[in-house]
């Protein structure tokens, strides 16, 4: 989500004129000098005019590590809203961000499932959790949202995806290459078997594609 990560292979969109159909989640990355200027309040200011058209705003932090950059992830309800916001940022605020990218995970359910699968169910009640919105208002009971929008299948798929990304990141760090940013991914603190956290926890019937649209 989300979600919440971006890969160099997706390509940066700073010079693109439009988004491909189906894309709903954007990743806006600032430089290390811009870290303090990119937070939930400033993102909500930028999203003024799109109230009710986005449901996830997430600015991940990496505990114990100094961040070379900061990335804000925003998931929109519809592609057209993501497209109009992207064009607005590109026209008026591109200098505030080093890169504008497409996230690999789209949709509220998938983004939230990825966060829980990689950080644990208890993390929904921490200050590291994404900000979730419904009907233009922020929702504070994320466990309720999680139960209504996530399925066990999604959690398992996102857990497998998180494992692959962690392996990719470990190889990149071992070869001294710049590591990819995986939102909310903290291998040292990740639950060994996150699925066991959900025994007896009601999960919704919704299911959404786990992969980025082509």
Number of helices: 5
Cα-atom radius of gyration:
16 Å
The N- to C-terminal Cα distance equals 16 Å
Mean pLDDT: 76
Instruction: Tell me about the largest β-sheet.
Output: 6 strands, antiparallel
For the largest beta sheet, what order do the strands appear in spatially?
4-1-3-2-5-6
Structural class of the helix and strand makeup? alpha+beta
How many DSSP E strands?
6
Percent strand: 5-15%
Shape: globular
Uncertain residue segments: 1-16, 177-196, 205-214
Order of helices and strands: EHEEHEHEEHH
Write up this protein.
The chain contains five helices and six strands; from the N terminus they run βαββαβαββαα. The chain is α+β, with helices and mostly antiparallel strands and 214 residues long. Strands 4-1-3-2-5-6 form a six-stranded antiparallel β-sheet, covered by helices on one side. Strand 5 and strand 6 form a beta hairpin. Helix 3 (108-119) packs across helix 5.
Describe the SSE topology.
Elements: E1 25-31, H1 40-46, E2 54-58, E3 69-76, H2 79-92, E4 99-102, H3 108-119, E5 131-134, E6 137-139, H4 142-149, H5 152-174
Antiparallel strand pairs: 1-3, 1-4, 2-3, 2-5, 5-6
Give short descriptive properties of this protein.
30% helix; six-stranded antiparallel β-sheet; single chain; alpha+beta; disordered N terminus; disordered C terminus; 214 residues
């Amino acid at each position: 989500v989300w979600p919440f990560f971006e890969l160099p292979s997706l390509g940066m969109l700073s010079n693109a004129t439009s988004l491909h159909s189906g894309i709903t989640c954007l990743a806006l990355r600032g430089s290390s000098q811009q870290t303090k200027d990119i937070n939930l309040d400033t993102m909500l200011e930028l999203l003024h005019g799109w109230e009710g058209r986005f449901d996830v705003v997430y600015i991940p932090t990496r505990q114990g590590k100094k961040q070379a950059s900061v990335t804000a992830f925003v998931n929109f309800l519809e592609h057209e809203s993501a497209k109009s916001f992207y064009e607005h940022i590109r026209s008026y605020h591109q200098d505030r961000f080093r890169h504008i990218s497409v996230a690999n995970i789209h949709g509220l359910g998938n983004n939230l499932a990825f966060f829980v699968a990689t950080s644990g169910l208890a993390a929904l009640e921490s200050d590291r959790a994404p900000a979730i919105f419904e009907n233009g208002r922020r929702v504070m009971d994320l466990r309720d949202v999680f139960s209504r929008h996530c399925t066990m299948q999604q959690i398992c798929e996102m857990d497998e995806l998180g494992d692959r990304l962690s392996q990719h990141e470990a190889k990149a760090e071992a070869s001294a290459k710049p590591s990819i940013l995986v939102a909310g991914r903290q291998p040292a603190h990740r639950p060994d078997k996150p699925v066991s956290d959900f025994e007896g926890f009601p999960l919704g019937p919704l299911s959404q594609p786990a992969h980025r649209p082509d």
